[in-house]
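Quick check before the chapter quiz. The format below is the same one you will see on the exam, so make sure you can read both the input and the output lines.
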Amino acid sequence: MVDFPPLPPSNLVQGATYYQPLQISPAHVELGDPAVRVMTDLKEVMAVTIGPEKTVDAARERMVRHSVRLLLVIDDQETVLGLVTATDILGEKPLQFIQKSGGRREDVLVRNIMTPQEKLEVLCMKDVAAAKVGHIVATLKKCGRQHALVVDTEGLGHAQQVRGIFSTSQVSRLLGTEIQTLEIAQTFAEIQVQLAK
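Here is the expected output.
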């Protein structure tokens, strides 16, 4: 039997941080490059999440702290309940909720403005693995969204798991050109509908 001496321990110093997965993004991509090069892969980068009972201000602070514009909304079992974006928080959704339900901005919770799971459209990892960056750009434009979720059904009894996220801001930065989606136009259309009531 081999004798294994113990390693010498030391105390954790105040202010110590911890390692987190870091996905290395390419410096530049072309439309013909593989789509996975512009996807934030949640196997390599921790998803930034929030609970549905947190305030929208707490969600905004979390986005700023983690330099993201999308949070997955999860329950205590880490089941995805929906998502909330910076556009949701900074746009008209909080005001619409206050006008409908009363209260103040600090009373608005993530669950009040998030896009719920049943309204989320997702891309399949199988399709993304065979796609090019141009396919993702076309998809984001057609959907009029700033983000697209990618799901995988490998593992966990073939249940869906959110595997990745496409962001127009990240794709734009890597392509070196701005991607225009219809989200702003949809937002103004929503405002017009509300004003017409």
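If your answer matched, good. Residues 184-189 have pLDDT under 50 and may be disordered.
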